[in-house]
Design brief:
Blueprint: H1 4-18, H2 23-30, H3 34-41, H4 49-59, H5 63-85, E1 97-105, E2 112-121
Antiparallel strand pairs: 1-2
Helix pairs in contact: 1-5, 2-4
Amino acid sequence: MILLRRLLGDVLRRQRQRQGRTLREVSSSARVSLGYLSEVERGQKEASSELLSAICDALDVRMSELMREVSDELSLAELAESAAASEPVPAPVRPMLNSISVTSVSGVTGVPTERVTIKAPAEAVDVVAA
């Protein structure tokens, strides 16, 4: 299962680390406790929109940029999850073929004049004797 709070926390952590900043610096600037920010980054706590706004301001990142990156991560996670869940496509099963001989008799002598062998799936052929 994909958890949005984990993806959001991963993106926030990457943003902070790209800037070379510590949790303490960002938590102080955002006016949020260090422990709470740590839990948000680890995906253990859901961040409110107010908290996200304060963290984005502290990181000098637009919330729309943050959410776009989260959206990209979510798309990739969904693709990976669906690929892992889908079963491999089975190889086509070849139907068992039965031979059917058809002999047509014509003339007075009763000598067969034509012989045809048809190979077809057993369930696909109905043989009707005339």
